């Protein structure tokens, strides 16, 4: 995808596409690690608590917990698919950057739900739980980067769409790059606060469902 973008675009458009693809690629890699760590922890949970029957029977006995895991997995899966579709459309010029933000939020919400559900059954001293928690933090950070990148790139495109990019000098290009980097940092700071709120709300919501 990036090679196609380099062949078809240049200047600000190419820079925007590369930033989008880099952030989305990092998020997808973090999601793959999260899924792997989640499977390891679930296998451990079943092995430790499901000695009186098969894994299928364990999940059936704990159907509410199982439904929570399934819901989280679906949210992450839908978000990941939406992210790939949105990135492809954004780079090809056929989609809106806002779709990347929506997909990232879906992934973040599913990740928070997955970790909360896993902690209910896992041993608090479990190494696999610690690894899942770290993987979830990596996903959260990656989603924040995608959101910040999408927002800053949208603003950059808006600022430059009326310009003749062919006549931008080196100073103008560098100034726009610095402004974009500043906005990314500002948005990441704001998103960190929102992630903390979201995590607390998801945890509260899950606890209420279990009561």
UniProtKB/TrEMBL annotation:
<dbReference type="GO" id="GO:0051015">
    <property type="term" value="F:actin filament binding"/>
</dbReference>
<dbReference type="GO" id="GO:0032051">
    <property type="term" value="F:clathrin light chain binding"/>
</dbReference>
<dbReference type="GO" id="GO:0035615">
    <property type="term" value="F:clathrin adaptor activity"/>
</dbReference>
<feature type="coiled-coil region">
    <location>
        <begin position="168"/>
        <end position="204"/>
    </location>
</feature>
<dbReference type="InterPro" id="IPR035964">
    <property type="entry name" value="I/LWEQ_dom_sf"/>
</dbReference>
<protein>
    <submittedName>
        <fullName>Huntingtin-interacting protein 1</fullName>
    </submittedName>
</protein>
<dbReference type="GO" id="GO:0080025">
    <property type="term" value="F:phosphatidylinositol-3,5-bisphosphate binding"/>
</dbReference>
<keyword id="KW-0963">Cytoplasm</keyword>
<dbReference type="GO" id="GO:0030136">
    <property type="term" value="C:clathrin-coated vesicle"/>
</dbReference>
<dbReference type="GO" id="GO:0030864">
    <property type="term" value="C:cortical actin cytoskeleton"/>
</dbReference>
<keyword id="KW-0175">Coiled coil</keyword>
<dbReference type="GO" id="GO:0043325">
    <property type="term" value="F:phosphatidylinositol-3,4-bisphosphate binding"/>
</dbReference>
<dbReference type="GO" id="GO:0048268">
    <property type="term" value="P:clathrin coat assembly"/>
</dbReference>
<dbReference type="GO" id="GO:0007015">
    <property type="term" value="P:actin filament organization"/>
</dbReference>
<dbReference type="Pfam" id="PF01608">
    <property type="entry name" value="I_LWEQ"/>
</dbReference>
<dbReference type="InterPro" id="IPR002558">
    <property type="entry name" value="ILWEQ_dom"/>
</dbReference>
<dbReference type="InterPro" id="IPR030224">
    <property type="entry name" value="Sla2_fam"/>
</dbReference>
<feature type="domain" description="I/LWEQ">
    <location>
        <begin position="1"/>
        <end position="209"/>
    </location>
</feature>
<dbReference type="GO" id="GO:0006897">
    <property type="term" value="P:endocytosis"/>
</dbReference>
């Amino acid at each position: 995808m990036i090679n196609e973008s380099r062949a078809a675009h240049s200047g600000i458009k190419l820079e925007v596409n590369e930033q989008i693809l880099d952030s989305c690629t990092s998020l997808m890699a973090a999601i793959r690690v999260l899924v792997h760590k989640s499977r390891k922890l679930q296998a451990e949970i079943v092995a430790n608590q499901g000695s009186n029957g098969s894994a299928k029977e364990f999940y059936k006995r704990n159907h509410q917990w199982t439904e929570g895991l399934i819901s989280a997995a679906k949210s992450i899966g839908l978000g990941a698919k939406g992210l790939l579709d949105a990135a492809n459309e954004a780079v090809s010029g056929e989609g809106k950057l806002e779709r990347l933000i929506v997909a990232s939020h879906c992934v973040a919400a599913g990740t928070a739900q997955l970790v909360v559900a896993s902690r209910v059954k896992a041993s608090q001293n479990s190494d696999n739980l610690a690894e899942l928690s770290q993987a979830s933090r990596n996903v959260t950070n990656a989603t924040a980067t995608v959101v910040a990148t999408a927002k800053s790139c949208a603003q950059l495109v808006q600022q430059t769409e009326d310009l003749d990019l062919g006549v931008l000098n080196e100073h103008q290009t560098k100034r726009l790059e610095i402004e974009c980097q500043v906005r990314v940092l500002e948005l990441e700071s704001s998103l960190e606060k929102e992630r903390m709120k979201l995590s607390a709300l998801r945890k509260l919501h899950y606890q209420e469902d279990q009561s």
